[in-house]
Amino acid sequence: MAVAAAGTVALGLALGGPSPSVGALSFVSPAMAQSSDASLDRAVAALRGISTMRADFTQTDRAGRSASGTMTLKRPGKIRFDYGKNADLLVVSNGRSLYMIDYEVNQVERWPIKNSPLGALLDPSRDVKQYGTLVPTGSPDVISVDVRDPKKPEFGRINLIFVRNANAPGGLQLTHWVALDAQNHRTTVRLANHRYGVSVPESTFDFRDPRRSSRRPG
Protein backbone atom coordinates (compact mmCIF):
# COMPACT_ATOMS: atom_id res chain seq x y z
CA MET A 1 0.00 0.00 0.00
CA ALA A 2 1.61 3.25 -1.13
CA VAL A 3 0.17 5.35 1.68
CA ALA A 4 1.31 2.96 4.38
CA ALA A 5 4.77 2.66 2.86
CA ALA A 6 5.22 6.41 2.95
CA GLY A 7 3.54 6.94 6.31
CA THR A 8 6.48 6.37 8.64
CA VAL A 9 8.86 8.48 6.57
CA ALA A 10 6.43 11.35 6.13
CA LEU A 11 5.72 11.61 9.83
CA GLY A 12 9.31 11.68 10.93
CA LEU A 13 9.73 8.16 12.28
CA ALA A 14 13.29 6.88 12.42
CA LEU A 15 14.51 9.41 9.90
CA GLY A 16 18.09 10.22 9.15
CA GLY A 17 18.87 13.81 8.09
CA PRO A 18 17.57 16.57 5.75
CA SER A 19 19.45 18.43 3.09
CA PRO A 20 19.92 21.87 4.74
CA SER A 21 23.39 22.11 6.27
CA VAL A 22 23.62 23.32 9.86
CA GLY A 23 27.33 23.95 9.25
CA ALA A 24 26.42 27.29 7.75
CA LEU A 25 25.99 28.62 11.27
CA SER A 26 29.38 27.45 12.54
CA PHE A 27 31.04 30.87 12.11
CA VAL A 28 28.77 33.85 12.72
CA SER A 29 29.14 37.25 14.27
CA PRO A 30 27.66 37.94 17.74
CA ALA A 31 24.93 40.05 16.12
CA MET A 32 24.00 37.24 13.74
CA ALA A 33 24.02 34.71 16.56
CA GLN A 34 21.71 36.91 18.61
CA SER A 35 19.37 37.28 15.64
CA SER A 36 19.41 33.49 15.12
CA ASP A 37 18.54 32.88 18.75
CA ALA A 38 15.66 35.34 18.50
CA SER A 39 14.31 33.66 15.37
CA LEU A 40 14.52 30.22 16.98
CA ASP A 41 12.70 31.57 20.02
CA ARG A 42 9.97 32.92 17.73
CA ALA A 43 9.55 29.54 16.05
CA VAL A 44 9.31 27.76 19.40
CA ALA A 45 6.80 30.36 20.64
CA ALA A 46 4.71 29.81 17.51
CA LEU A 47 4.54 26.07 18.16
CA ARG A 48 3.78 26.55 21.84
CA GLY A 49 1.05 29.01 20.94
CA ILE A 50 -1.00 26.33 19.18
CA SER A 51 -3.58 24.85 21.53
CA THR A 52 -5.48 23.07 18.78
CA MET A 53 -5.11 23.11 15.01
CA ARG A 54 -6.62 21.39 12.04
CA ALA A 55 -5.09 21.57 8.56
CA ASP A 56 -5.15 19.76 5.24
CA PHE A 57 -1.93 17.94 4.45
CA THR A 58 -0.26 16.48 1.39
CA GLN A 59 2.77 14.21 1.71
CA THR A 60 5.04 13.43 -1.22
CA ASP A 61 7.82 10.87 -1.17
CA ARG A 62 11.02 10.80 -3.23
CA ALA A 63 9.32 8.73 -5.95
CA GLY A 64 6.69 11.42 -6.40
CA ARG A 65 3.89 9.41 -4.81
CA SER A 66 1.43 11.56 -2.93
CA ALA A 67 -1.19 11.04 -0.26
CA SER A 68 -3.39 13.61 1.42
CA GLY A 69 -5.80 14.02 4.28
CA THR A 70 -6.49 16.03 7.42
CA MET A 71 -4.12 16.64 10.32
CA THR A 72 -5.53 17.43 13.76
CA LEU A 73 -3.25 18.65 16.56
CA LYS A 74 -4.00 19.15 20.25
CA ARG A 75 -1.71 20.02 23.11
CA PRO A 76 -0.11 18.33 24.82
CA GLY A 77 1.33 15.80 22.40
CA LYS A 78 -1.72 14.63 20.49
CA ILE A 79 -1.95 14.42 16.71
CA ARG A 80 -3.98 12.55 14.11
CA PHE A 81 -3.26 12.09 10.40
CA ASP A 82 -6.48 10.99 8.76
CA TYR A 83 -6.10 9.79 5.17
CA GLY A 84 -9.82 9.62 4.50
CA LYS A 85 -12.83 7.44 5.19
CA ASN A 86 -11.84 4.67 2.80
CA ALA A 87 -8.11 4.63 3.66
CA ASP A 88 -6.56 1.60 5.32
CA LEU A 89 -4.00 3.72 7.19
CA LEU A 90 -4.36 5.90 10.29
CA VAL A 91 -1.60 7.64 12.27
CA VAL A 92 -2.41 8.80 15.82
CA SER A 93 -0.54 10.05 18.88
CA ASN A 94 -2.25 9.88 22.27
CA GLY A 95 0.31 12.14 23.93
CA ARG A 96 2.67 9.33 24.93
CA SER A 97 3.15 7.17 21.85
CA LEU A 98 2.69 7.52 18.13
CA TYR A 99 0.80 4.69 16.41
CA MET A 100 0.55 3.71 12.77
CA ILE A 101 -2.48 1.49 12.24
CA ASP A 102 -2.69 -0.45 8.98
CA TYR A 103 -6.15 -1.94 8.66
CA GLU A 104 -5.25 -3.67 5.41
CA VAL A 105 -2.93 -6.11 7.18
CA ASN A 106 -4.35 -5.69 10.72
CA GLN A 107 -1.06 -4.35 12.04
CA VAL A 108 -0.24 -1.69 14.64
CA GLU A 109 3.20 -0.15 15.07
CA ARG A 110 4.10 2.06 18.04
CA TRP A 111 6.89 4.55 18.68
CA PRO A 112 7.50 6.62 21.83
CA ILE A 113 7.09 10.27 20.89
CA LYS A 114 10.57 11.03 22.20
CA ASN A 115 11.99 8.67 19.56
CA SER A 116 10.46 10.62 16.70
CA PRO A 117 11.57 13.97 15.23
CA LEU A 118 7.84 14.70 15.10
CA GLY A 119 8.24 15.23 18.83
CA ALA A 120 9.56 18.66 17.89
CA LEU A 121 6.05 19.51 16.76
CA LEU A 122 4.25 17.68 19.58
CA ASP A 123 6.52 18.77 22.43
CA PRO A 124 8.43 21.92 21.38
CA SER A 125 9.46 22.77 24.95
CA ARG A 126 11.54 19.60 25.05
CA ASP A 127 12.84 19.15 21.51
CA VAL A 128 13.08 22.36 19.52
CA LYS A 129 15.15 24.42 21.96
CA GLN A 130 17.44 21.54 22.84
CA TYR A 131 18.01 20.10 19.38
CA GLY A 132 16.92 22.85 17.01
CA THR A 133 19.31 24.84 14.83
CA LEU A 134 18.32 27.77 12.66
CA VAL A 135 19.05 27.30 8.94
CA PRO A 136 19.58 30.46 6.81
CA THR A 137 16.75 31.01 4.31
CA GLY A 138 17.66 34.34 2.72
CA SER A 139 14.23 35.74 3.57
CA PRO A 140 13.19 37.63 6.73
CA ASP A 141 9.70 36.17 6.33
CA VAL A 142 10.78 32.52 6.34
CA ILE A 143 12.27 30.62 9.28
CA SER A 144 13.77 27.17 8.83
CA VAL A 145 14.57 25.04 11.89
CA ASP A 146 16.57 21.82 11.67
CA VAL A 147 15.78 19.45 14.56
CA ARG A 148 17.93 16.43 15.38
CA ASP A 149 19.71 14.75 18.25
CA PRO A 150 23.35 14.34 17.11
CA LYS A 151 23.89 11.68 19.77
CA LYS A 152 20.98 9.60 18.46
CA PRO A 153 20.96 9.87 14.66
CA GLU A 154 18.81 6.74 14.43
CA PHE A 155 15.92 8.78 15.88
CA GLY A 156 16.01 10.94 12.80
CA ARG A 157 15.87 14.53 11.73
CA ILE A 158 13.20 16.95 10.58
CA ASN A 159 13.31 20.40 9.00
CA LEU A 160 10.39 22.68 9.98
CA ILE A 161 9.54 25.66 7.75
CA PHE A 162 7.63 28.67 9.08
CA VAL A 163 6.32 31.69 7.16
CA ARG A 164 5.38 35.01 8.68
CA ASN A 165 1.60 35.23 9.09
CA ALA A 166 -0.09 37.71 11.42
CA ASN A 167 -3.10 35.42 11.82
CA ALA A 168 -1.07 32.49 13.17
CA PRO A 169 0.02 32.00 16.79
CA GLY A 170 3.24 33.91 17.42
CA GLY A 171 2.96 35.49 13.98
CA LEU A 172 4.45 32.43 12.26
CA GLN A 173 2.67 29.63 10.41
CA LEU A 174 4.14 26.16 9.97
CA THR A 175 3.74 25.57 6.24
CA HIS A 176 5.61 22.30 5.76
CA TRP A 177 8.36 19.99 6.94
CA VAL A 178 10.95 17.89 5.16
CA ALA A 179 12.20 14.52 6.39
CA LEU A 180 15.08 12.44 5.05
CA ASP A 181 16.09 9.07 6.45
CA ALA A 182 19.47 7.36 6.48
CA GLN A 183 18.66 5.73 3.13
CA ASN A 184 17.96 9.15 1.58
CA HIS A 185 14.19 8.58 1.58
CA ARG A 186 13.04 12.17 1.45
CA THR A 187 9.43 13.06 2.14
CA THR A 188 7.78 16.48 2.23
CA VAL A 189 4.57 17.19 4.14
CA ARG A 190 2.80 20.44 3.22
CA LEU A 191 -0.02 22.00 5.23
CA ALA A 192 -2.87 24.21 3.99
CA ASN A 193 -6.12 25.73 5.25
CA HIS A 194 -4.88 26.03 8.85
CA ARG A 195 -7.65 26.41 11.44
CA TYR A 196 -6.57 27.37 14.96
CA GLY A 197 -8.46 27.07 18.24
CA VAL A 198 -10.96 24.55 16.88
CA SER A 199 -12.90 22.22 19.16
CA VAL A 200 -11.15 18.83 19.27
CA PRO A 201 -12.68 16.11 21.48
CA GLU A 202 -10.35 13.61 23.14
CA SER A 203 -12.04 10.82 21.18
CA THR A 204 -10.32 12.18 18.05
CA PHE A 205 -7.18 10.36 19.16
CA ASP A 206 -8.81 7.00 19.84
CA PHE A 207 -8.57 4.21 17.30
CA ARG A 208 -9.95 0.75 16.74
CA ASP A 209 -7.25 -1.86 17.20
CA PRO A 210 -7.48 -4.20 14.17
CA ARG A 211 -5.72 -6.94 16.11
CA ARG A 212 -8.82 -7.23 18.27
CA SER A 213 -11.42 -6.84 15.57
CA SER A 214 -11.65 -7.53 11.85
CA ARG A 215 -14.02 -4.60 11.36
CA ARG A 216 -12.84 -1.61 9.36
CA PRO A 217 -12.69 1.81 11.02
CA GLY A 218 -15.88 3.80 10.99
| Total beta-strand segments | 11
Order of helices and strands: HHEEEEEEHHEEEEE
Under CATH, the topology can be stated as outer membrane lipoprotein receptor (LolB), chain A
Beta-strand content bin: 35-45%
Derived structural class: alpha+beta
Q: What is the helix content? A: 10-25%
Return residue spans where pLDDT drops below 50 for at least 5 consecutive residues. Answer: 14-33
List the domain count as a whole number: 1
Q: What is the CATH C level class, in words?
A: Mainly Beta
Considering the protein shown, what is the CATH homologous superfamily? Lipoprotein localisation LolA/LolB/LppX
What descriptors fit this protein?
11 strands, eleven-stranded antiparallel beta sheet, 218 residues, globular, 4 helices, alpha+beta, outer membrane lipoprotein receptor (LolB), chain A
Structure description:
This protein is of the alpha+beta class. It is built from 4 helices and 11 strands; from the N terminus they run ααββββββααβββββ. Mean pLDDT is 79; it is low at 14-33. The protein has helices at 2-10, 30-48, 119-122, 124-131, and strands at residues 52-61, 66-74, 78-82, 89-94, 97-102, 107-112, 132-135, 142-148, 157-164, 172-180, 186-196. An 11-stranded antiparallel sheet has the order 6-5-4-3-2-1-11-10-9-8-7.
